[in-house]
UniProtKB/TrEMBL annotation:
Descriptive protein name: LacI family DNA-binding transcriptional regulator
Residue ranges annotated for the HTH lacI-type domain, each copy included: 6-62
UniProt keyword terms in alphabetical order: DNA-binding, Transcription, Transcription regulation
InterPro entries in the cross-refs: HTH_LacI, LacI/GalR-like_sensor, Lambda_DNA-bd_dom_sf, Peripla_BP_I
């Protein structure tokens, strides 16, 4: 086959099957019509030969592109690459390609990129940029666009989503701090325009009890926003002995503000993050945080979309994945009263 591209006939011959069987096995919409061991043998043969399906021709026949649009708000935030990897892993297994765009948390940019992907006839979207009130997604759902949100939800009935069990994660974190002896616990809340910020704040207020706990809302899920919120918190509530941050970047900002004030963590203030993003164990001190299974989150989001695309009558559902508190060195017993 030197000098020419391998064909479907070549794949079928290498796998010892009929051309039609090879075609069904390499098409995500008909793969289930072929025995799993046969489909695997065909896939291996295709990869060994370097066979690339003609998705353009297939798209003209089926009105499908086998491409999926993936929107993320900020690829510099370390929690999103594992989600994207999970999405790609599951889409690859079903013969779909992920087209990734970064919106920079800019609504105009998001709308333009969404329209660009739609013009390329992607089969559906996986969206990590969802806000609780999201006109763009509402319009897309109204048009019947296949949508799945990941890490966040949108207040739009019938939209599938994959999220972590944030409420239980907050409960674990607050219980840990109380077991250490903390009674003056504050929350550096994420933006309330997104579901993660709202759910974690609501859970914190429930766990804080009737007396409540100090809450400062951050302008964003960033280190800078976390530092600014910590500054306000320590100025207004100097007796605070522990904080639960809305995410790990906010926690990183809290650590930076403590260092700038000549205070130490956890001797002067215990800090708990949320997400267990890569390198959270390299913080100084290593960060106690709530682990969210982001790779699995991406896998499940892709699976939900594939189900929507291959079974139009699929009932929309929300998948909630368990969270786990990871205890490191940023939490300890509160300092003795002066």
């Amino acid at each position: 086959m030197a000098g020419r591209r391998p064909t479907l006939d070549d794949v079928a011959r290498a796998a010892g099957v009929h051309k039609a069987t090879a075609s069904r096995a390499l098409n995500p919409e008909t793969r289930n019509q072929v025995k799993s061991e046969t489909a695997h043998r065909i896939t291996v043969a295709a990869r060994r030969l370097g066979y690339v399906p003609n998705t353009l021709a297939r798209g003209l026949r089926t009105s499908r592109s086998t491409a999926v649009g993936v929107l993320v708000p900020d690829l510099t935030n370390p929690l999103f690459p594992p989600i994207v990897r999970g999405i790609q892993d599951r889409l690859d297994a079903h013969g779909y390609t992920a087209l990734l765009v970064n919106t920079d948390n800019d609504e105009a940019r998001e709308r333009a990129q969404f329209a660009e992907l739609a013009s390329r006839r992607v089969d559906g979207f996986i969206v990590a940029t969802a806000r609780r009130q999201h006109p763009l997604l509402a319009e897309a759902a109204e048009r019947g666009t296949a949508l799945v949100t990941v890490n966040r939800t949108v207040e739009l009935p019938g939209t599938p989503a994959v999220v972590g069990d944030d409420a239980d994660g907050v409960a674990q974190a607050v219980a840990h701090l109380r077991l250490l002896g903390h009674t003056r616990i504050a929350h550096l809340a994420g933006p309330q325009s997104v579901s993660t910020g709202a759910v974690r704040l609501r859970a914190f207020l429930q766990q804080a009890g009737p007396a409540g706990g100090a809450v400062v809302e951050c302008a964003g899920y960033t280190e800078q926003a976390g530092r600014a919120a910590t500054r306000r918190l320590l100025d207004q509530c100097p007796g605070t002995t522990a904080v639960l941050a809305g995410n790990d970047l906010i926690a990183l900002g809290a650590l930076a503000e403590l260092a700038a004030r000549g205070r130490r963590c956890p001797r002067d203030l215990s800090v708990v993050g949320f997400n267990d993003m890569p390198f959270a164990d390299r913080f100084q001190p290593p960060l106690t945080t709530v682990r969210v299974p982001h790779h699995e989150m991406g896998v499940q989001a892709a699976q939900l979309l594939v189900e929507l695309l291959t079974g139009p009558q699929t009932i929309a559902r929300t998948v909630v994945l368990p969270t786990q508190l990871v205890v490191r060195d940023s939490t300890a017993a509160p300092p003795p009263p002066l």
